[in-house]
Amino acid sequence: MDFTIPTEIRDLTALVRRFVDEEILPVERTVLERGFGAAQVEIERLRGWLREQGLLAPHMPREWGGGGLSLLDFAPLSEVLGRSVIGHYVFNVQAPDAGNMELLLHHGSDEQRERWLRPLVAGDIRSCFGMTEPEFPGSNPVWLGTTARRDGGDYVIDGHKWFTSAADGAVFCIVMAVTNPEAPSPYARASQIVMPTDAPGFEIVQNLPVMGERGEGWMSHAEVRLNGVRVPSANRIGVEGSGFALAQERLGPGRIHHCMRWLGICERAFDLMCERAATRELSPGRPLGSRQIVQAWIAESRAEIDAARLLVLRTAWRIDREGAAAARDDVSLIKFHTAGVLQRVLDRAIQTHGALGLTELTPLAFWWRHERGARIYDGADEVHKTAVAKRILERYGMKREKA
Ligand SMILES: Cc1cc2nc3c(=O)[nH]c(=O)nc-3n(C[C@H](O)[C@H](O)[C@H](O)COP(=O)(O)OP(=O)(O)OC[C@H]3O[C@@H](n4cnc5c(N)ncnc54)[C@H](O)[C@@H]3O)c2cc1C
User: Would you tell me how many other CB atoms lie within 10 Å of the CB of residue 48?
Assistant: First the structure.
């Protein structure tokens, strides 16, 4: 394994770091004080400049309008963007669009890619991904209530979704629905289907109140009803019944994006924690950082962030070389491990700031609210731990459980 960052990527990362500090952080202030909508015009101005420089969607191939970076090359960039609550959005590599781009790139038909992928990469439209349902456990995604029934050349889709992130304002939703209820394997019953959000019957019931916020636009998590929505069967991605396999594949690189973003958050929280510990005096001449307990938080955070980064880079390296399927265990390990590091580092940073850490005067409280979900979305901690442990135990002779 060689994690040497190529010179051009190092230069690009330094440029992006300056852009985050000088251009994005002032706009972030507006988001923290007045919400995402209040910053929309400024964000579009920044995106316009990045578009001209060919820097939007750096993880996508150039032929589709992206920057053409591999996962490993994109990793340091993603980390730097994670330093701001809107960094990924400004560069058009935010969830769920980044994952949808990867899905369409690798599995979309030519027509789907022209119609949906190209404008998505250009940042002209947004999308969402509808898999989770209120009545069924998201942790068992082969058990779904949403159905897609064939009717001539169309599917007619009925169902109830929630936590459809960024649905408010999205132009299309990739919906996971059961197309083959009789398939012997539960893993072969669902398909992923591109559904325009202006199709009759697509209904956003509400933006869910999450951690005290309703969210808006890209920052929303919607409850959605699909009331007999009719879409051409040509909108299905891949072969019928491949929905679960595609969801797994979509989540591999997606988890690298999340983990690197979380490490960027950790680094900014770490900077804020150290600045505060070095300058906040408990009594004249006695900074908070002179206390051993605070020193321990700093040392532990440093070790945890650096170790997590190595684990994530190893996973990106493996996905680039061997594909997402070969890196299944690695992806599970980084998902729960990095989410845990994120939570611990944020908690220590908030504690170091005292009451200030709970205000919107730093991004810490925003991240505390918005990133608690890191241990739940894209597979809860427990799901990843049990999945990886079972595969390890099988190598030690434990029999595989029946699905
Ligand atoms: C911020 C956020 C954004 C999201 N965005 C999207 C989105 O855009 N699209 C989408 O489709 N979904 C989205 N989700 C939903 C997410 O994928 C689900 O919440 C997740 O899969 C867990 O499903 P659940 O909430 O139904 O919990 P459940 O499946 O009901 O599980 C509840 C808890 O049970 C425990 N548990 C579950 N399985 C096991 C097990 N095998 N062993 C031990 N313990 C277990 C875990 O602790 C888990 O947290 C989002 C969620 C959040 C929080």
Answer: 11
Name every residue whose Cβ is closer than 8 Å to that of residue 399 and which is 6 or more positions away in sequence: none
* Dihedral over alpha carbons 298, 301, 307, 309 (to 10 degrees): -110
Question: Is the Cβ atom of 137 under 6 angstroms away from ligand 1?
Answer: yes
Residue that the structure tokens 């608690």 belong to: 372
- For ligand 1, what atom is nearest to the CA of residue 161? 11
Radius of gyration for the alpha carbons in the chain, expressed in angstroms and rounded: 22
Q: Does ligand 1 have an atom closer than 6 angstroms to the CB of 135?
A: no
**Residue 140 alpha carbon, nearest atom of ligand 1:** 29
Q: How far apart are CA 136 and CA 20, in angstroms?
A: 40
Does residue 134's CB lie within 6 angstroms of at least one atom of ligand 1?
no
Ligand 1 center from residue 139 Cα (angstroms): 5
Distance CA 333, CA 315 (A): 9
CB atoms within 10 A of CB 147: 17
The set of residues, in sequence order, having a beta carbon less than 8 Å from that of 401 and lying 6+ positions away, is 390
Joined tokens for residue 152 = 């001539």
Q: How far is the CA of 269 from the centre of ligand 1 (A)?
A: 26
User: What is the Cα–Cα distance from 167 to 196, expressed in whole angstroms?
Assistant: 11
Any ligand 1 atom below 6 A from CB of 35: no
Tell me which H or E stretch contains 162: strand 154-165
- pLDDT in single tens digits along all 403 residues of the chain: 778 889 999 999 999 999 999 999 999 999 999 999 999 999 999 999 999 999 999 999 999 999 999 888 898 999 999 999 999 999 999 999 999 999 999 999 999 999 999 999 999 999 999 999 999 999 999 999 999 999 999 999 999 999 999 999 999 999 999 999 999 999 999 999 999 999 999 999 999 999 999 888 999 999 999 999 999 999 999 999 999 999 988 777 788 889 999 999 999 999 999 999 999 999 999 999 999 999 999 999 999 999 999 999 999 889 888 988 889 999 999 999 999 999 999 999 999 999 999 999 999 999 999 999 999 999 999 999 999 999 999 999 999 876 6
The C-alpha atoms of residue 121 and residue 380 are separated, in whole angstroms, by: 29
- What would the two tokens of residue 39 be? 């910053």
